[in-house]
Amino acid sequence: MKPPNITPPPLRNDCFALPAGVNWTPVDDALALLRSRLTVVTSVETALIGQAVGRILAEDVFAKRSNPPQPNTAVDGYGFSGAAPEGPQVMPLQDGRAAAGIPFDGAVPHGKALRVLTGAALPTGVDTVILEEDVTVQDGHIAFHGPLKQGANTRKAGEDVAEGDLVLPTGRRLTPADMALLSATGISEVAVRKTLRVAVLSTGDELVEPGNSAGPGQIFDANRPMLLSMIARLGYEPVDMGRVSDDREDLRDRLDKASEQADVILTSGGASAGDEDHVSALLREAGAMQEWRIALKPGRPLALGMWNETPVFGLPGNPVAAKVCTLIFARPALGLMAGEGWSQPLGFDLPANFEKRKKPGRREYLRARVRDGQVEVFASEGSGRISGLSWAEGLVEIQDGACHIRPGDLVRFIPYGSFGL
Ligand code: AMP
Ligand code: MG
């Protein structure tokens, strides 16, 4: 039989601009819209300092006590009053000493020196300290060489933090260093946001649970373990909603459950406009679907919608695209909803150790790492190449307008750590 006379579409040169007739949303516009639409959804609770690391402050914290609370000595040595002039100095020793936590009881007369140990509150009559290594002690006297400025080797009260100062602002994700700062300034408990609950759901008839046997045409669900662990690393509570097949009723049911158990839902797969893309179809049906064709590679499609008043990020199924979309779109959005505020990952401009041509008008993220001060990229840009996600130590961000990157050009490298992973 003769084949039908069908004309194939014209060849498309990959260096041409993005397909015409489509309204491509620039990444920054999509981010600005997300930022303007989302708000904090978590409530407030009190946490003791011992449990507060990694939590998000729900209000500004002010110092209850100065640090240091009183003037004290920064070194082991001998304390006295006023500056010492140039040349050899000899001073009689005052009986007793001042140590950390054990202040000297009394005043030190002008012209006399007192033994002082690091951290000791300066007694009345002492405002200057000479380091013990610079002193000879003999016959109840000390001898050293001047000059020494008044106040040398001492710490002033409140020179670090004064009582009433703002110590840490609302939205701060508390670090181990913050534990020291809060403790030192007299704070033992803080108001924090409840941890944001993030549901993760995989969709696709082809998916099998890792550990089970996989038949022909089946693949192991790689996105869910990745996304759940990303959520945990980002400091949120992962809620595992399992997998659903490409069945609209099953998916509807699971989204209902997820919206009861979590503050926000991440799905992967089924987000574009194909026959089996039920996530986007359901969100569209629910009426609050953002039809985004984002000028981003890898990434599109990304379906955003509300399900029972719970925001849903319908991520692409390809693991590389799922990860990039989570880092670029979901991460700042989760930060906003969790009370941390919108944040941009810290990137570093470094010379490229690669060459790349791309279409202008879209943002691209490549799996990258830094060696010898230069950014190298994974050999393949294939969106299914999961090994490249592991190989990489971050992403390189190629700006929308760029067309041709040559070796040595500065490119923006964003380590995974900058995203909080
Ligand atoms: P989809 O977005 O559903 O069209 O899926 C795009 C590609 O990603 C297909 O090759 C899927 O098999 C694959 N994919 C979808 N979900 C997963 C998953 N959870 N783990 C690994 N690959 C997936
Ligand atoms: Mg699918």
Automatic annotation (TrEMBL):
CDD domains the record matches: MoeA
GO MF terms, alphabetically ordered: metal ion binding; molybdopterin molybdotransferase activity
Residue ranges of domain MoaB/Mog in the record: 199-336
Family: Belongs to the MoeA family.
Protein name in the entry: Molybdopterin molybdenumtransferase
Cofactor(s) named in the record: Mg(2+)
Enzyme class per UniProt: transferase
